[in-house]
Design goal:
The protein is α+β, with helices and mostly antiparallel strands. Helix content is 39%, strand content 22%. The chain has 15 helices and 16 strands. The structure holds zinc ion (ZN). Zinc ion binds next to loops.
Length: 478
């Protein structure tokens, strides 16, 4: 048995987060809506209807292309891909075949451990192409019956096809996660895995180590979570390895399999299948798309910061891997952190308040609506600026901010936590009188003796005085 190497390539489908569908004006957000309520004669494929391409979707697909380093083809067009399935009422899908929107890109990514720390070197996966197409409807099988919901039919998709550059299930998942971050960063897709907005077909084959040959592959269809992507690939690699051992070589031809989550195994769907079977031809109802260099330059200028650029920026600020990951993955905290750090010029405190304390109060995936980020940002800046607020109070105040209170209100409501000037003077006088020994030690040069006096003031004020201020005033007095 020779030493074998795994070769993996992915096809990734991501739903674009446009207002309307790809070729009609139907609402593109069907989540939670009753079946077959966001449909019209166009997305239902009625004879005589005409598709009209969605400009917003094309722009989003172009931005996704640029974000993965692909070159946009100035001339490209839609094609019809024919096949019959009950979830596809027109009997064909409008896709792009020989002239896709963009080609030849690459995505750099890292593998991370469970706590978000990088493992190993930067990897690169080539991107063959990105094209646009429309999604099919959704079938639900109930016993003998199958229910059809066409709300999803016509939703704009980007399909991203990679080169066979991935070498393990772990790499495939890390790449897919980075791709998801990129699509979210450029606002092309929400890429919400729970809602099926991102799905994968994974092709895997084995070859002898050192060989450059691409052997026939097994394509695992329709994986809709990172977990199933990893499990399905792990299973299939093992299965192909066993087959190699028994038959003395790779698969004889390409095959298509499905992943059955409950059984934790793949099952055969189709033997062999070629593009010829789909009878592609240029979509006669939509004129070719033409972009000028100027169109593309304009889009480039509008591109937001990509995850790789953010990573560099935060690493330079001295943040830990897991903090960088959090800021990239959760734009809510990123928006707040960026503004607070910029405004206060205090990276250390911004980190502790936004990335540790605030993140403790606001969970990103509990489905609850988050407090308005502008409000929270403004209040955190006010919190840091208010020198009367001590570190001990900070956390409690932050909780109130999350509940919708302003710093001003909190201070007013809970009473000024700090003690006012004259009261403080009085307290300090008393403290000096009550702690003659500590005062003497301090005057004799024992700096830390002041701690005892500060402690006395804190106790006397019921924890309301600001220790830093007490310290300062005491020193002045003594
Ligand atoms: Zn429609």
């Amino acid at each position: 048995m020779p030493d074998l190497e795994t070769v993996i390539g992915l096809e990734v489908h991501a739903q674009m987060n446009t207002k309307s569908k790809m070729f009609c004006g139907c609402d593109n957000d069907a989540f939670g809506k009753p079946p077959n309520t966001t449909v019209c004669p166009i997305c239902m494929g009625h004879p005589g209807t005409l598709p009209a391409p969605n400009e917003e979707a094309i722009k989003k697909a172009m931005k996704a292309s640029l974000a993965i380093g692909c070159k946009i083809q100035e001339e490209n067009h839609f094609d019809r891909k024919h096949y019959f399935y009950p979830d596809l009422p027109p009997g064909f899908q409008i896709s792009q075949y020989d002239f896709p929107l963009s080609t030849k890109g690459e995505v750099k990514f890292n593998i991370s451990d469970d706590s978000g720390n990088k493992v190993g070197d930067v990897r690169v996966c080539g991107i063959t192409r990105l094209h646009m197409e429309n999604d099919a409807g959704k079938l639900t099988h109930r016993g003998e019956k199958t229910l059809c919901d066409y709300n999803r039919a016509g939703t704009p998709l980007v399909e991203i096809v990679t080169e066979p550059d991935l070498r393990s299930p772990e790499e495939a998942v890390a790449f897919a996660q980075e791709l998801r971050r990129i699509l979210i960063a450029v606002n092309s897709s929400e890429a919400d895995m729970f809602k099926g907005m991102m799905r994968f077909d994974a092709s895997v084959s084995l070859r002898e180590k050192g060989s450059k040959k691409l052997n026939p592959r097994s394509e695992i269809k329709n994986l809709n979570s990172f977990k199933s992507l990893e499990r399905a690939l792990t299973y299939e690699i093992k299965r192909l390895g066993k087959k190699w051992e028994e038959e003395g070589g790779p698969l004889k031809n390409d095959i298509t399999v499905g992943w059955v989550d409950d059984d934790e195994q793949t099952k055969m769907l189709r033997d062999k299948e070629t593009a010829m079977d789909y009878r592609y031809f240029p979509e006669p109802d939509i004129p070719p798309l033409r972009f000028t260099k100027k169109d593309i330059e304009k889009l480039k200028a509008e591109m937001p910061a990509l995850p790789s650029e953010l990573k560099l920026k935060y690493e330079e600020m001295g943040l830990e891997d897991f903090e960088v990951r959090m800021l990239i993955d959760q734009p809510y905290f990123r928006i707040i952190f960026d503004k607070v750090a910029e405004e206060t010029k205090d990276v250390k405190r911004s980190r502790s308040i936004v990335l540790t304390q605030l993140a403790g109060f606001i969970k990103s995936d509990d489905g609850k609506e988050k407090p308005d980020e502008d409000f929270v940002t403004e209040q955190i800046i006010a919190l840091i600026a208010d020198e009367r607020i001590t570190k001990n109070q900070e956390k409690e105040y932050l909780k109130d901010i999350v509940d919708g209170m302003t710093v001003e209100q909190i201070v007013k409501d809970k009473g000024v936590r700090d003690v006012d000037e004259s009261e403080m003077e009085e307290l300090i006088e008393k403290a000096i009188e009550a702690n003659p020994q500590a005062v003497e030690s301090f005057k004799a040069g024992k700096e830390q003796a002041i701690g005892a006096i500060v402690g006395w003031v804190m106790k006397e004020s019921g924890g309301q005085a600001d220790p830093a201020r007490v310290n300062e005033m005491l020193k002045k007095k003594l």
